[in-house]
């Protein structure tokens, strides 16, 4: 997938993508860097991968820093934004990409801690760094976005409910963000081929991912979906504040919007 952002189009802009040492976040942050943005690569565990990605961005002439932070730990989030302020002086784009909840050995409410409470904490903590004209992008799945109206695989349901709760909590902030001149958009996509989540769900529900592929006509891969996330940071924000990626015809629309 080629970069949807024109070279130099984000020169001087400062971008943080949460959970960007690997997967969708890593491809997204690379697109921003290639377009000239100075990027913050946030990781929780995968420091070596984050450093390798930052090195490759610098070798290509870009600017990148890595910041470790467990987003469920408010002190860790505060320290991350202190570093961003010291290094870059502010932020123009914040992508809320990090997600989880299917890890084993976590507290029963971990999905809610990460996908709802931590998202609100990260956004709120970032506010002093976000000037008018800046943008926040929240990344989610169709399976989570439509969970109130369309059931999903049992293994994913707690994650879906927590991500929708996070989306709702963030959407409730839209009026106050608008007052500050900060834009907000949700990017919702179907299962993404080649991700750990899709692989785990396929293992638990053999045939589930190919069934989604047949129903949707196509599933996006990691770099294609990342291109949509990066584009959502610069394209006009839809009236519903939601950018749908790929087919949604199998999902029952949420009737209020909010949507
Ligand atoms: N996978 C799909 O099929 C799919 C479909 C539609 C939408 N999405 C959305 O796309 C986004 C990225 O998905 P993905 O599949 O690329 O995710 P992933 O491979 O599971 O990666 C998750 C990222 O989040 C980070 N992370 C997890 N817990 C964290 C915590 N407590 N603090 C800080 N960072 C944390 C991880 O960091 P470390 O690696 O350092 O631990 C990792 O970089 C998510 O919002 C997801 O809901 C995914």
Provide a descriptive summary of the structure in words.
The protein has 259 residues and is α/β, with parallel strands linked by helices. It has a single domain (14-244), classed as NAD(P)-binding Rossmann-like Domain (Rossmann fold, 3-Layer(aba) Sandwich), CATH 3.40.50. It is built from ten helices and seven strands. α1 (23-34) links the parallel β1 and β2. It is globular. 44% of the residues are buried. The model has no long low-confidence stretch (mean pLDDT 96). Residues 18-19, 21-25, 43-46, 70-72, 97-100, 114, 139-141, 163, 189, 191-192, 195-198 line the site of NADP nicotinamide-adenine-dinucleotide phosphate. It comes from Leifsonia tongyongensis. This is SDR family NAD(P)-dependent oxidoreductase. InterPro entries: NAD(P)-bd_dom_sf (IPR036291), SDR_fam (IPR002347).
Task: Determine the N-to-C terminus distance.
Answer: 29 Å
Strand arrangement, major sheet: 3-2-1-4-5-6-7
User: Helical amount among residues, as a percent range?
Assistant: 40-55%
Mean pLDDT: 96
According to CATH, the homologous superfamily is: NAD(P)-binding Rossmann-like Domain
Strand and helix order: EHEHEHEHEHHHEHHHE
Uncertain stretches of 5 or more adjacent residues: none
Main beta-sheet annotation: 7 strands, parallel
Q: What compounds sit in this structure? A: NADP nicotinamide-adenine-dinucleotide phosphate
Quaternary structure of the protein: single chain
* Annotated CATH architecture: 3-Layer(aba) Sandwich
